[in-house]
Amino acid sequence: MSVIGVVIASTSVFAFFAGIARIFLWPILQTYLQARITAGVDEAVRKRLAAFQLDLDKELEAHRNELGVAAEHIRASLARGTSDYAIYAQRRHDAVSNLYADFLRAEATTKNFRDLATESDPPDSRKEDMVARVIRARNEAYEAYYRNTLYLPDTLDQTATAVLDEFHKLLVEYVAPNDSPNVSRGRISTQLRFEMLNLQRLSREELARARPV
C-alpha cells in the first residue's frame, strides 16, 4: 500500500471517529457550556442583587434614623405643647375666677358705707369719703381687669368691659351727680348688678368647660 493510501485510510478513520465524537460528545460539551454560561450569568446577577440590597439597606437605615429623629422632635413638640397648654389652661382658669372675685369685692365696696362718717358729721366729709371709696373700687376693678385680660375668652372680656363701664358711670355720678331721673346711682347700681350676674353666668360656663371629665 502506498503512502497516499495509508494517509487516505488514516484520514478516513480519523473522520469516522471525529464524526462519532461529534455525535456523542457535542451535546455534552454544549450542555457544559450552557451550564457555565448560566452559572456566570447567575453569579453576576447575584452580585448585582447583593450590591443593590446593600445600598437599599443603607438607605433604609438612614431613612429609619431620619424618621427616628423626626419622631423624637414631634414627641418633644407635643410634650411642650401639652405642657404649655396645661399652663395656659390653668392661668385662664385662674384669670376667670380671680376677675369675678375682684369685681365682686369692688362692687361690695360701692354699696357698704356704714363705717364712714355718720349723718351728724359734716355732709362734705361724708361725701368725700364715699367718693374716695368709689374711686378705690373703680381703680381696683380696672387693675383686676388689666391683670387677667390676657387670658380671658372674648365673651368674658366683653362682659368685663361692660362691668368696668358701670363702675366708671357710678364714680362719675358720685363726683358730679346728674339731675336726670334716668341717670341715678340706683339705676347705675342696678345695671352694674345685671352685668355682674351676666359675668357670673359666663364665668361658670367657662370654668365648667375647663373642668376635667
Concise account of the structure shown:
This protein has 213 residues and is an all-alpha fold. It has helices spanning 3-109, 123-148, 154-175, 185-210.
Write the layout of secondary structure elements.
Elements: H1 3-109, H2 123-148, H3 154-175, H4 185-210
Mean pLDDT, to the nearest integer, reads 77
The main β sheet shows up as: none
CATH class of the domain at 89-210: Mainly Alpha
The count of strands amounts to 0
Number of helices: 4
Name the helicity range: over 70%
Beta content comes to under 5%
CATH fold group of the domain at 89-210: Four Helix Bundle (Hemerythrin (Met), subunit A)
Listing every helix as H and every strand as E from the N terminus to the C terminus, the arrangement reads: HHHH
Low-confidence stretches: none
Shape: rod-shaped
Describe this structure in words.
85% of the residues lie in helices and 0% in strands. The protein has a domain at 89-210: Four Helix Bundle (Hemerythrin (Met), subunit A), CATH 1.20.120. It has four helices and no strands. It is rod-shaped, with a radius of gyration of 51 Å. The protein has helices at 3-109, 123-148, 154-175, 185-210. Helix 1 (3-109) runs antiparallel to helix 2 (123-148). By secondary structure, it is mainly alpha-helical. The model has no long low-confidence stretch (mean pLDDT 77).
